[in-house]
Amino acid sequence: MIVSALRILPAALLLAACGATPANTAAAVTKRDVMATKDAAAPTATPGSNDTGSPASRNDKLAGEHATIVAELRRLLVGTDATLDGAAITDVAQIDACRTRFVTDKGATNIEWAKGGNITPRDEAGRELNDLPASDGAHILSVKTGEEADGVSGAVGLLVGECGGGE
């Protein structure tokens, strides 16, 4: 409890100087301290185990996080005027943590995010174009400029960055 009090005091003093009352902020800071302490106190995994520290577990966690991103890509791309290599996108599915399958009217294309490099979208004629990496070369993802395109570019950037392609 002494550690929590020592963490709260500087924050309370800083907030008091900004006009906040320590009585109102102490509970929020204490709750945050408890959560941080729980995280810090969590046991670390031994190398090679299938716990949070193992490479397999990290890949599983990354795959889980990327499943959410791929689901968002599916929402933004399927049933819209988005295209891959000029063909309407009919599905977007995760293969594994760093590969995603885009299905179009012409067939399926496996995107390999680790090969992405620095993907920077470009605007042409009211559309945002991204060159998506695959083993057979780049595939052009085209989305009408606007909020959806911003969401797609953000998702693509996260996938490339977390898979090591943005280095």
Q: How many domains comprise the coordinates?
A: 2
Query: What is the number of helical segments per DSSP (H or I, 4+ residues)?
Result: 4
CATH class assignment of the largest domain = Mainly Beta
Q: What characterizes the major β-sheet?
A: 7 strands, antiparallel
The SSE order reads: HHHEEEEEEEH
Q: If strands are numbered along the chain, what order do they take across the biggest sheet? A: 4-3-2-1-7-6-5
The CATH architecture of the largest domain would be Roll
Overall SS class: alpha+beta
Straight-line distance between termini: 43 Å
Low-confidence stretches: 1-52
Word description of this protein:
- Helix 1 crosses helix 2 and helix 3 packs antiparallel against helix 4.
- The chain has a seven-stranded antiparallel beta sheet with strand order 4-3-2-1-7-6-5.
- It folds into two domains: 40 residues, no CATH class; 105 residues, PH-domain like, CATH 2.30.29.
- The chain is built from four helices and seven strands.
- It is of the alpha+beta class.
